[in-house]
Design brief:
Number of strands: 16
Number of domains: 3
Structural class: alpha+beta
Number of helices: 18
Distance between the termini: 116 Å
């Protein structure tokens, strides 16, 4: 009993230390497609803020002015409806493409994947191949190791800061932002967001990498709800790969081929995987469908003289011998429903965008007086009007009144003479509108009217009618 009491307690760790994944470089049709996607998306991100559009940049989300410029379109807070439609489109697109091809978004277009791939390529350029990187990590600190690590960190930090600057450049004119940053004249909030997004890029793409996809991304958790047996996934053909056993063989050795499956257990599929999983273990939520294992395995199959396609895009139903064609796989009820809803929302979005009015009017009656008498003994009502010009042209506007016989509308005395007012492109004009009614006219104490505004510039000018009320004195018997 005394010996059992004197036992030294043993500390057991419940958590395994995360080991860094060193993805091996591979080539193939899918990796070429990933490279094209990466360069196209990064190029679009970094170049877009520098494209001019008239006197401003083409894409600018001007938060202080509450104006969102996207090429020839200017959106205002009142256009929040379009943002709602865009979010619905994004959600339906996620369901639609996931039902067809699984996590193809994650493997080819997700920002986390794109920036991680950029950081991995910089690391590979400085430190060498997968084997050299692993050897360098285990090596003692020498001048060569310090040089490579410092160079890598310099590239990562520079690229991350450039990413943060570009991101802020979507909200602040980029041609003013960059000179202010390098001359140390950038404002406090702008500098904060540059460093914040730069640090986020550096941390997510440089260090956490696959951990974001495995543990932080919610899509990895609920993707199973959008999968079915006919969803295209990256799959290992177990029936072909190991009907008997895995093992190495020499090219052209039919005896070894007959005794073993086509999988030679080379481990290439694991080495090239950016999340470090073994696709031969079946469908896993960590798989981002980047198809690196397909290209790596196909390359090995060609070397040993075996047919390619041991790992391929397939479905669980096809792997189980359902015999369904690709057309039957794609044209199934779930996909058709998602596609129909997506098409309907997209058509609605485009239609709403095309029919969107090029200007907007807000009217507020003068609350200081219900009415007043003019010098010519006419009844006048005053209205404060805000005209929002959503177009890309300086626009003139006229005003008229409907629903009140004998009444006339004109811009107030605070404005220049004439029946039209000009509002600059993407700006708001504030004016006074005066409704005048002769005292001898037929009117009621209070009645509904419409103020009718029309554009004066363009081949097909738009018009807007806004309701308000007109007040007059009580009639004497």
């Amino acid at each position: 009993m005394s010996s059992s009491l004197n036992k030294i307690p043993v500390e057991v760790s419940l958590y395994e230390k995360t080991e860094k994944v060193y993805p091996r470089e591979t080539a193939g049709r899918f990796q070429s497609l990933r490279s094209v996607s990466m360069y196209a998306l990064l190029g679009l991100y970094y170049i877009l803020p520098w494209i001019p559009w008239g006197e401003r940049q083409a894409v600018l989300f001007d938060l202080p002015a509450r104006k969102f410029h996207i090429f020839f379109l200017t959106f205002w807070p009142q256009d929040f409806f379009f943002l709602t439609l865009l979010l619905i489109l994004a959600g339906l697109s996620l369901f639609f493409f996931t039902a067809i091809a699984g996590r193809v978004w994650c493997g080819f277009a997700c920002p986390q994947t794109v920036w991680t791939e950029a950081f991995v390529r910089m690391e590979r350029w400085v430190e060498g191949s997968r084997a050299k990187q692993m050897k360098l990590t285990q090596a003692p600190w020498t001048f060569d190791k310090v040089r490579k690590r410092v160079t890598k960190q310099f590239l990562w930090i520079t690229f991350a800061l450039f990413t943060g600057l570009t991101f802020v450049g979507y909200f602040q004119p980029v041609k003013e932002l960059f000179p202010a940053f390098f001359s140390f004249e950038l404002g406090g909030w702008a500098l904060f967001w540059v460093i914040f997004y730069g640090f986020a890029t550096y941390g997510n793409a440089g260090f956490m990498r696959e951990q974001v996809c495995k543990y932080m991304c919610p899509y990895a958790r609920f993707q199973s709800a959008m999968f079915d047996k006919d969803t295209l996934i990256v799959a290992y053909d177990e029936q072909r790969g190991e009907p008997r056993s895995r093992g190495k063989r020499r090219k052209g050795d039919e005896t070894e081929t007959a005794a073993k499956g086509d999988c030679i257990d080379c481990g290439i599929c694991v080495q090239v995987c950016p999340t470090g999983i073994d696709i031969r273990d079946g469908l896993q939520y960590e798989c981002i469908a980047c198809a690196a294992c397909i290209d790596g395995c196909d390359e090995v199959m060609k070397r040993v003289g075996l047919p390619v396609g041991l790992i391929k895009y397939s479905t669980q139903a096809q792997n189980q011998g359902s015999g369904k064609s690709l057309k039957q796989t794609v044209l199934r009820p779930r996909v058709l429903i998602y596609g129909t809803l997506l098409a309907m929302v997209f058509i609605g979005f485009i239609s709403a965008l095309v029919m969107r009015s090029s200007f907007q009017v807000d009217i507020l009656r003068d609350r200081n007086a219900l009415y007043r008498w003019s010098k010519t003994n006419d009844i006048e009502n005053s209205y404060q009007v805000r005209v929002m010009n959503k177009s890309q042209l300086d626009q003139g506007y006229t005003v008229a009144v409907r629903g009140l016989e004998g009444a006339s509308a004109d811009w107030g005395k605070t404005s220049e003479a004439g029946r039209s007012r000009v509002v600059q492109a993407g700006d708001i004009g504030e004016f006074i509108v005066i409704i005048t009614l002769p005292a001898t006219a037929n009117y009621q104490r209070s009645q509904d009217i419409e103020l009718y505004f029309s554009e004066t510039v363009g081949k097909s000018p738009s018009s807007i009618a806004e309701e308000s009320r007109f007040w007059g004195p009580a009639k004497r018997n």
